[in-house]
Amino acid sequence: MTEIEWWEYDDAAEMAGALAGDIGFIIESAIDARGSAVIALAGGSTPLAAYAKLAEARINWKKVTIIPTDDRIVPMGDALSNVTMLAKTFLPKGARVIPIISEAASDYKACGNAANARLSDFHWPLDLCLLGMGGDGHTASIFPGPDLEDALNAPADRRALGVMPDPMPQDAPVARVTLSLPSIASARALIIAITGEDKKTVLETAIDQADTSAYPIGKVLSAVELPVDIHWAP
Ligand SMILES: O=C1O[C@H](COP(=O)(O)O)[C@@H](O)[C@H](O)[C@H]1O
């Protein structure tokens, strides 16, 4: 288990400002060091306010590539599509936003394989992976179900895979594509952003349980070696 630092805020707006500042700093540091930045950003609703603030930052967005940490297998433009949300926010700024869903794929595993092939073209490791977490303890789209072991025990060069959550999350009951644990754990910086007392309790429990946890986030964090910042607001 890695070193974990909690950053607690009075409210979600304060957290959004701090998170946007931290992500912006990491992007600029990567551009200074390597000439470009490749980052993975969580989907869902929690980080939306931070993304809106981040998009206003004076960053050379043309040097930034953004990958969703995971996506739901739905058409581009669908309300559940993580990449659509990221594209609406960051494409107008000049960033490259990379879809990981192929509508032509025959099934969720083929969709994951196509994402894996596409992502292999980018420079790895990621400069940043920003993770969210569901109330059920999933992170990215690493869910309990038939693909959990494949996501956790993927070979080091396996970037992404298709997963079928079981049980299905009620708010987005669809198959997914997710970054693998090695892709997440090898990032140069790892941040988790969550809100609410319930998620805080789940995350604290998962951290205590580490690799014995039934929560995927517990298993993921137990495999991570770099320090992790957790941003939380009520
Ligand atoms: O399904 C997903 O859920 C998590 C958490 O989303 P939130 O709406 O509760 O913030 C998210 O991190 C992940 O990217 C998304 O696909």
TrEMBL record:
Record domain Glucosamine/galactosamine-6-phosphate isomerase: where: 11-221
Protein keywords: Hydrolase
This protein's pathway: Carbohydrate degradation; pentose phosphate pathway; D-ribulose 5-phosphate from D-glucose 6-phosphate (oxidative stage): step 2/3
Reaction(s) the record says it catalyses: 6-phospho-D-glucono-1,5-lactone + H2O = 6-phospho-D-gluconate + H(+)
Pfam families documented for this protein: Glucosamine_iso (PF01182)
Keyword Chaperone part of the UniProt annotation: no
Gene3D superfamilies listed in its UniProt record: 3.40.50.1360
Domain of life: Bacteria
EC number(s) per entry: 3.1.1.31
Function recorded in the entry: Hydrolysis of 6-phosphogluconolactone to 6-phosphogluconate.
PANTHER family named among the record's database cross-references: 6-PHOSPHOGLUCONOLACTONASE (PTHR11054:SF0)
Family from the record: Belongs to the glucosamine/galactosamine-6-phosphate isomerase family. 6-phosphogluconolactonase subfamily.
The protein, known as: 6-phosphogluconolactonase
Classification of source organism: Bacteria, Pseudomonadati, Pseudomonadota, Alphaproteobacteria, Sphingomonadales
Gene of this entry: pgl
